[in-house]
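Structural biology now treats backbone shape like a language. To illustrate, our science desk offers a sequence and the tokens encoding its fold:
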Amino acid sequence: MTQEKATEVRAGSLPEHGPLDENGREILLSLKNVDITFGKGDTAVRAVQDASFDIYKGETFSLVGESGSGKTTVGRAVIRVNPLAGGEILYKGVRISGKIPRSLDREVIRNIQMVFQDPAASLNERATVDYIISEGLYNFHLFENEADRVKKVETMIKEVGLLPEHLTRYPHEFSGGQRQRIGIARAMVMEPELVVADEPISALDVSIRAQVLNLMKKFQEEKGLTYLFIAHDLSVVRFISDRIGVIYKGRIVEVAEAEELFNFPLHPYTHSLISAIPIPDPQLEKNKVLYTYDPTIHDYSEDKPEFVCIGHDHYIYGNKKEIAEYKAIRDKGVPVKAVTIQDPDHPVEHKSDDNAAERAADAEILAHPARDTGSIWYKILSFLLPILGIIAAVLFRKHNYIRNYKCCKSGAVAGFIFLAVIAVIFVLLLVLAVI
């Protein structure tokens, strides 16, 4: 950190503008090699690993991925709820992660607000709508007198499409869409610069979603807001985002402008997400061939992966061989066909896979340890010494050596069966000898 930035942090204030990138865009928020871990020791779970991306002022940056991929964890880290295990988060070039002065912490709270996914759980059921919206104004003294506070609250409640008489009611008296509007009003009344929207429409009816999205777009145009929009529905994300980041099991695998990402989904996981978008035509949807992402296609044992730019402001995660392939595809300039519709008269034959369940279990493991080879010698030794084989299998399973665990387990089971057969034969021979 430079001396100038260090002075800003100690002073507990944020600069008026953030740093500029090589293209002259103002970087409002920047995540650099962010790691987030829950738990300690052997039970620790690495929810986010080495996440890096920038959000420019005035844009909508969407973070997409399946459930459990770490999207909300990143959003909560931005508002300083989740502590970092590594890396840093910069706001306008000033570090806001970790221990910071109280005055700076208050500025961050004031400038970064969040709209939560569940509009029912995020509102205090015992408080009136008036108090819920006014709470931030009270905490930060953002009004001159009571008349000014009432005016601000009434103006905001009207802007989100509700009425002033709703201010005296309680959250349980409203529908889901109305509650989400109250949540948006609570955030917008603080006049923030950055809003973290954590799947703000996923709990709403389809007919209400467009209204809430239009409302958020209106605020962005009128107030110059910047959004970190967290979602799993790519069909929505495409039309509201300037740039999109794709996250898989806590790792950012691809970042690009919205149309760039949909025209050139280079990472296999991005390809699978786009292929899963429903097609409005029932016949086409019926004949669509889903692309399923299999993480075992990557071999990172020797050639380690990196997150690099391949041009066109397109960042992707992969090793040197994969990056070269992605770059070659992008340089051709021919859009990648993410969705395949099969001919109903010539259906695609799906080969049976007896090991599908086994491969699915392997896919649950984000990364195998380097020595998890599944050598045949583990199976042979476990067959000869089944008791030791079972002990080894338990130890391998505990430390996520899945391939070794399977070899030891199958070898030990075969060994026990063999010993049982020998024992039965011996007993039968003994009985015959006595007779």
The longest strand covers residues 27-38. The first helix runs from residue 3 to 11. The chain has three domains: 3-262, 264-348, 375-434.
